[in-house]
Amino acid sequence: MKAKLIILATITAAMISLFLFIDIGGYWDYVLPRRINKIIAIILTGSSIGVSTIIFQTITNNKILTPNIIGLDSLYMLIQTIVVFIFGASTLTMMNSNIHFLISVGLMLVFSALLYTFLFKREGQNIYYLLLVGLIMGTLFSSVSSFMQILIDPNEFLVVRDSMFASFNNVNTQLLFISSVSVVLIGLYFLRFIKYLDVLSLGKEQAINLGVSYDAIVKRLLMIIAVLVSISTALVGPITFLGLLVANITYHFMGTYQHKFLFAGSIFISIISLVGAQMLVERVFSFSTSVSVIINLVGGLYFLYLLLKESK
């Protein structure tokens, strides 16, 4: 298992080095800092999405679902649309980046907390009911966003459209520090729960029989998922199929149930996927598309493959 992680770490280091130094010419002072900022954003985003997806799939015992099903991506787009609809596009573009980041993450966390608190109190900790309500709320948010986007000025819609697609081309460096601190803190908090995930993957009844405090641990894991998804979405925008793609490739490549290896593998594979997609955007498509378009295209095809495979 360690040999596989060494292989992934080597490929990751090679991809990052290639991205940082290819065609840099004599403009080290100008080019290198900007590429380093992109790599930091890629590491934060890839780590957050990869880890949160594996936690979510372990809790739900379903390798096709991702945290996007609970509607956080749709809520993020609704927040951007409401700001433009009420206050105008200039407010969104001129707003302090840290304040905008904290508002977006804060509202997504409030939504997650209300959803979890309400359902865990009213519905007897039924996680599938939570997924159903999250899916409905996500559809509602998406519908309201589409309705408001039709009503706003076309020029202002272009500002909202930029938020629809994840992009590392213009990473806001002001957000990297607060995002890094947030990911490190939530990572340290998450360390205490890793030991439970191998047991949780056996199912709710088996986990309870083995002495795991299922309800309390699952509730905390769901909040960790909400924080990680909120940070990655607010940092670069929604990337719908990255989690599905990375998590399933990790399962097949690592071939283990031990989550400490799965998490490490998912982080490496996420970084490799995002760096590769960003190099395609810059070298092949000449910035005419975005990372999320490439990832969602590949991830969507992989999703269809998984559905056809599971149906046999």
Task: Please describe what this structure looks like.
The longest helix is centred in the first third of the chain and has 33 residues, at 28-60. This protein has helices at 2-21, 28-60, 72-87, 89-94, 97-122, 127-151, 154-164, 173-190, 194-200, 204-209, 214-236, 242-254, 259-284, 291-311. Helix 2 runs antiparallel to helix 11 (214-236). The two termini are 30 Å apart. The mean pLDDT is 82. The chain has 14 helices and no strands. By secondary structure, the chain is an all-alpha fold. It has one domain: Orthogonal Bundle (ABC transporter involved in vitamin B12 uptake, BtuC), CATH 1.10.3470. The protein is globular.
List the helices and strands and how they pair.
Elements: H1 2-21, H2 28-60, H3 72-87, H4 89-94, H5 97-122, H6 127-151, H7 154-164, H8 173-190, H9 194-200, H10 204-209, H11 214-236, H12 242-254, H13 259-284, H14 291-311
Helix pairs in contact: 1-2, 1-13, 2-8, 2-11, 2-12, 2-13, 3-5, 3-6, 3-7, 5-6, 5-11, 8-11, 12-13
